[in-house]
Amino acid sequence: MIISASTDYRKAAKAKLPPFLFHYIDGGSYGEHTLRRNTEDLAEIALKQRVLKNMSDLSLETEIFGEKFDLPIALSPVGLTGMYARRGEVQAAKAAEKKGIPFTMSTVSVCPIEEVTPAIQRPMWFQLYVLKDRGFMRNVLERAKAAGVTTLVFTVDMPVPGARYRDMHSGMSGPNAAARRVFQAMRHPEWAFDVGLFGKPHDLGNISTYRGEPTKLEDYIGWLGENFDPSISWKDLEWIRDFWDGPMIIKGILDVEDAKDAVKFGADGIVVSNHGGRQLDGVMSSAKALPSIADAVKGDLKIFVDSGIRTGLDVVRMLAMGADCAMLGRSYIYALAAQGQAGVENLLDLYDKEMRVAMTLTGAKSIQDLNRDSLVNI
Ligand SMILES: Cc1cc2nc3c(=O)[nH]c(=O)nc-3n(C[C@H](O)[C@H](O)[C@H](O)COP(=O)(O)O)c2cc1C
Fold this sequence. Notes:
Layout: H1 5-16, H2 19-26, H3 33-44, E1 62-64, E2 67-69, E3 73-75, H4 81-84, H5 88-98, E4 104-105, H6 113-116, E5 125-129, H7 134-146, E6 151-155, H8 165-170, H9 177-186, H10 189-197, H11 205-211, H12 217-227, H13 238-243, E7 248-253, H14 256-265, E8 269-272, H15 286-297, E9 302-305, H16 312-320, E10 325-328, H17 330-360
Helix pairs in contact: 1-17, 5-17, 14-15, 16-17
The protein binds flavin mononucleotide.
The site of flavin mononucleotide has 25 residues, from helix 2 and helix 17.
């Protein structure tokens, strides 16, 4: 069992959310083996303790695509965030801005782009899925550009959706799902009032704006299922590269050859990720995949990593293995569900403190000082 602030927020989120939403966040695909590996492999990596090195002026600052950030951490794109907390995307974006880190909005957000960007001063990042409906992709990219989005995160590990059996058990999908969801909401009155009633509209804001009609939660799985595009290849990404002037990050890389292809393609960054164990169950953890990918492409593009990060110590481990920036998925979503914007801010403060302790005791004064020498068994 991993003990961390994420663990406490996970418990609080479980108590607050109707089960269909908690399990949608918490679960992985098929037997959830990769989901477990992500946290377990990371926790196994031993940090090397160093002492008496005068660590008084330690800095966690970083620069990504010419912009300074206070921590080497970004928020990963998470669909349906506005179902876990009232207008959740806005709350998460505000928390990220306050703590000086990037927020990435998911394609399948509840709030549309145009609701989030006016609530923050700094530009946000936007995540796009490869979808059959290229008209939607073009439309949403144009709107992202118009709203001042700087960085595009292009997710490529979902040409088909992995089956998440937990969702069928929990009432997210499966028989009598709609009735079960209403029943569960009634048993979670705090969520039912705060998000269920006052957090409306509950639709996929970016898609509704494009289609000109509301896309309800029930349509979510159907629309996505119909629209994922298994025919996608690197060639299809070229028009996006031409269309998007800003930095482009490819999310969902787990193999050295794919990382090299991303460099050849001209990507500005990759996210080493298995989608938090929600896609191909059985693949290796991000922690295991990262070192050889970093050996192959470090310096050619920015290396981001997610899947399994639950503590500031995990961030330090990932940076020492070669990542430039860590990304948080469930970890921040649990905090958001439990306490909204304040929860995410508090969580990021805890990451900050944990990183400072870990860096002080590994002898790294800046994130550039973190490398394999900071670890024992890699
Ligand atoms: C509830 C949930 C929804 C997600 N939705 C998206 C999404 O819309 N787009 C995307 O690229 N990744 C999505 N992801 C994957 C995350 O961006 C990230 O890769 C993953 O959560 C990292 O693993 P972790 O949760 O163990 O940190 C989602 C993850 C979760 C838990």
